[in-house]
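Blinded run. Sample ID left blank on purpose so nobody reads anything into the name before looking at the predicted structure. Input follows.
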Amino acid sequence: MSVVALKLQRAIASYQQGQSRETDRLCREILQMDPRQCDALHLRGLAALRQGSVQAGIDLIARSLAVNPDQPMAHSNLGNAYLESNRPEQALAPFDRALRLDPDLPLALSGLGRALLVMGRNKEAAAILERAHRASPGDVETLHDRARALFQLGDMNGAIDALERALVLRPDSAGLFNDHGNALLEVGRTDDALASLDRALAVDPKFAEALSNHGLALLKLGRHDEALRSLDGALEFRPGFFAALSNRGNVHLQQKRFEDALADFDRALLAGANSPEAHNNRSAALLRLKRFEDALASADRALVFDALSPEALNNRGLALAGLFRYAEAEVVFNHAMQLAPTFVEVIQNLAQVLLKLNRLQDALVHFDRAIRLDPASASTHFNRGTVLLNTSRYDEAAAAFGDAMRLSSALPYVSGMALYANLNCGDWKGYHQRTEQIAEIAAGGGCAVDPLQAQLFLASPADQLACTRAYVDEHHPQPVVRMNASSKYRHDRIRIAYLSSDFREHPVAHVAAGLFERHDRDRFDTFAIALEAAPAGDRMRERLTRAFAHFHDASRLDDREVAAKLRELEIDIAVDLNGHTTGGRLGILAYRPAPVQVNYLGFPGTSGAGFIDYMVADARVIPPEEAHAYTESIVRLPHAYLPYDDTSPFAEIPSRSQAGLPEQGFVFCAFNSSFKINPAIFDVWMRILKRTPDSVLWLRSYNDAMQGNLRLEALARGVAAERLIFAPRTTTTAEHLARTQLADLFLDTLPYNAHSTAADALWAGLPVLTCAGNAFAGRVAASLLQSVGLPELITQNPEGYESLACSIAASPEMLADLRARLAINRQTHPLFDSDLYRRHLESAYITMWERNQRGEAPVGFSVQALVATCNRSPH
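Blinded prediction complete.
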């Protein structure tokens, strides 16, 4: 053996023993003897690479290949040198040359695969790495790299298989267990993922990436406190770790700790400022905080970095919807849906926007589509039920809410919505048990009913307050920035703004139109803030436009913009006429745009909002001892709090036969809304019919399901179905008032009375029999009867109610006396003295304003009764 060969043999041995300096010395000696000795050049290059002299190593291997280009291992090592120096593009050519010389060379195959993986050419990388694995089945790194390529391609099952094969070869690898757990998370095998991540941390307890993934797995399992411990551990060992901060923010989102989530996402932005994920997560937190403008800015920032992100587009749409920019939101959601046709949340959100745009059929189509994609989504069934409820398809709505409740009985408000829908179609199965369950959920602090349903299903004002407060906290949080309007406006007249979605043909407008027209223009400057548009040709809208000194259509403005408008107009007293009824927007007054803010007329209960100062009521509907159950200071008018327009006209009275009534017999009337009729009051009504021969019960025309179910319920109680007569809808209020005079006695509902309907009946000369309830909504008819001088028609329990109804029906003299006294009292008592009512309400406004001008806090008070100016003539 030659001297060169012996020295080369010694150089190879020293290299294999990790003695790079000795290797380099021996190779130098060889090259002094033979400068073109390619193996020595190659080996010296490898020694240089091992010592960190990357460019020197590359140059030496290149010189070796210049001497002998047919060295597959040298080409492969040159490629790996480029790869290790972060030059994957330059590595491709050497790897290709090596594989042309030796197509099955494992190091070249694995190196080429790794280079392609680094360059993001994952499909090519996966194919090459499969070849590398076949060439060298025991190479764990090749399997690991192939798993990474498959993961990037979305082939999670392939990645899991490759990782599991690698773990057989190296069962103590924290990195393999971490990636295995991460892939299992992607396919929803969360428990298995947690087990793998536990094993990764058993090997390396300080492995930050594994701790972050461990936290993510615990988050998916709903184990929030444990998740936070893992994520905090990741951040301890790797401060500013983007994934851990992002996951931590998501834990806080699920815990509804939105400020903490926002702080986490802000920290994540410092760690990955150009990350669309960080900006999008920040947008999500801001959405939960109702900071819609900031949420929109964050979503837009995310879209700068990833314009095709369905998640960012979804958050952008939600922000626009939160700002009431529904048309723009629709465009954004449609774009997101085109990019991700199966993104159920986007489809749901698009449907919600269409619902807000009153395109109910379009909304229903999209909710149906979302259910086809995810039939187990309780929220989608719930939202579908909401659309059906708004289209008066109550039986279908009840079925949808029932589906939602079966999928998630804990879904907020589902219990109340389901029962409310059932009430509207007369389906009373399990009614008593369900109301008890709702009361139990509410007593435990759960969200079982919205504020309107609370009036139906919760017994006391205190229970209703607790429910309403929880609803307001969720749906109408006070904005971060409030306007805090000046309390020292100096105007010649007090500026009053009435805010309502019901400035159109609606019961609120019907009873209050005369009030608005009569306001003292010398003392008050009146503004209408219409929150919804009215149909073309709506006569009431036309009338109200003339009734106010200023009429503003604010239907296209968001809450902040409406609040800013009130501030710009320097409104002294803002009066909300909606409360928690359909179309209400308490969020406007949450900005505190007026010095005095009032809850009035539209909603028979507390607003539950700390930013509303006063509530207009009377001593009957809110006795002094119950003031604690209202967040507002109570202002009590001396008579009924409910106004009435004493110019409401009557059409020509039809005959009984024209109205579908029998010519003979006693006619009980109950023109109450369908949701106010429950099995308890219906039991009483049926007993009254059975005790009153030849009597009928005249009801409003309800949906087919309601009418059919009421007939069946009557039969079940031994009353012929034909004794229930349903009055068709009239085209005008005047026609309704005229036909109401054909009835003999109006039967009220409990626990939610007739309100404007009872006032209409009394205006038409029809006596109203009521049973006083435990809360505001159940005392309105009693308030009306007290103000019209017929307190004997107020009963205190169902037994007294039933007995008095039967007595009146059996005594023509008693009925005649009631009707005669009502005919007189309509003209002499305060209930229908619209001008007297106006003066009382204005006195209340002046007191509120004067207290504010003196810098005094709101306090409850009673308005002193004024003397009527004159009697009214009958209409």
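Unblinding after everyone has recorded impressions. The chain is about 60% helix and 5% strand.
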